[in-house]
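Retro notes (design track)

What went well: tokenization of the new backbones is finally stable.
What didn't: we kept losing track of which sequence belonged to which structure.
Fix going forward: every design gets posted as structure first, then sequence, in one message. First example under the new rule, 326 residues:
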């Protein structure tokens, strides 16, 4: 039932530099989503991240974070000029600084306003081009599961191209159990014209098969396929999409260290060209290693060695030491 794999947007990590390296060395991703855009005028790093020249050969969907329909349409018009046909709205981010402004999953607290927003956005997109699609990445509520019914009533009114659901409340962040029954509820009431996408807690073949089994048991086969969006699982293990594609029943024996080294080196060198100084590059790589260390079951002492580095030569030396020992 899961036929396509999407890469979830992760702020500061899944940039065009990471996406290109992932596609080159690992593959297996059918669609990529950008970290959210917020500025009314695309420029600098945001523009480089979405520019087609930096995303050749990959299917990319830009994501916008706002609760202002006018701002959404301003950004959308620039994206359409770059050639994009699908634009995603972020209604899932649980960050306190985002939610406090009524954006991301904070917008779910106001279903009436969300209804007006989607109406204005879709009318505006239709004026910009009849072939422009709107997709939504959402959680199932802010604080209470009972909120989901009202939110679903809003979504079902509109011709969304995709509804990507992380079946947790905002207050649950990324912990606690997945509310699979609420995802299944959406599968039964949202129009089949809207593609349903599952997101949440897929980190290996076992968790993938567990979610697949839940969907089959619920009788959603009539949808033919339900793509799965993965974020942290891919960052922790870049091989995961290829592991899942053949639906293998057993884990692979271990990471391909040679490929991992080439992957990391390319990301590092491309960030050298992107960042204003080496310290920023090291900070980027530290963030990536925080996730990679989980997938590699890296000893915390070794991760600390990475985090102690501040200069690029030091970082490269520690990376080489770690990879040589795996």
């Amino acid at each position: 039932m899961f036929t396509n794999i999407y890469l979830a947007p992760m702020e500061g990590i899944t940039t065009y530099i990471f996406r290109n390296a992932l596609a080159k060395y690992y593959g297996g991703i059918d669609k990529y989503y950008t970290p959210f855009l917020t500025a009314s005028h695309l420029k600098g790093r945001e523009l480089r991240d979405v520019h087609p020249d930096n995303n050749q050969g990959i299917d990319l969907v830009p994501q916008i974070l706002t609760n202002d329909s006018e701002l959404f349409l301003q950004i959308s018009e620039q994206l359409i000029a770059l050639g994009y046909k699908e634009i995603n709205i972020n209604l899932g981010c649980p960050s306190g600084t985002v939610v406090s402004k009524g954006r991301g999953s904070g917008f779910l607290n106001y279903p009436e306003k969300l209804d007006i927003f989607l109406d204005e956005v879709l009318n505006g997109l239709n004026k910009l081009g009849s072939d422009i699609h709107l997709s939504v990445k959402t959680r199932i509520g802010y604080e209470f599961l009972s909120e989901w019914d009202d939110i679903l009533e809003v979504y079902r009114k509109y011709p969304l191209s995709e509804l990507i659901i992380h079946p947790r409340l905002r207050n649950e962040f990324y912990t606690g159990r997945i509310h699979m029954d609420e995802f299944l509820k959406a599968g039964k009431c949202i129009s089949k014209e809207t593609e349903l996408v599952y997101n949440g807690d897929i980190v290996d073949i076992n968790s993938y098969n567990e979610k697949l089994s839940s969907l089959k048991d619920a009788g959603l086969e009539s949808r033919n396929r339900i793509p799965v969006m993965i974020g942290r699982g891919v960052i922790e293990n870049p091989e995961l999409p290829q592991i899942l594609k053949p639906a293998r029943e057993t884990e692979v024996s271990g990471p391909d260290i040679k490929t991992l080294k080439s992957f990391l080196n390319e990301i590092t060198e491309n960030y050298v060209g992107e960042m204003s100084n080496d310290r920023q590059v090291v900070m980027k790589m530290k963030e990536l290693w925080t996730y990679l260390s989980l997938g590699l079951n890296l000893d915390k002492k070794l991760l600390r060695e990475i985090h102690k580095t501040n200069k690029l030569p030091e970082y490269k030396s520690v990376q080489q030491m770690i990879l040589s020992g795996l």
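Added context from the reviewer: The two ends are 35 Å apart (CA to CA).
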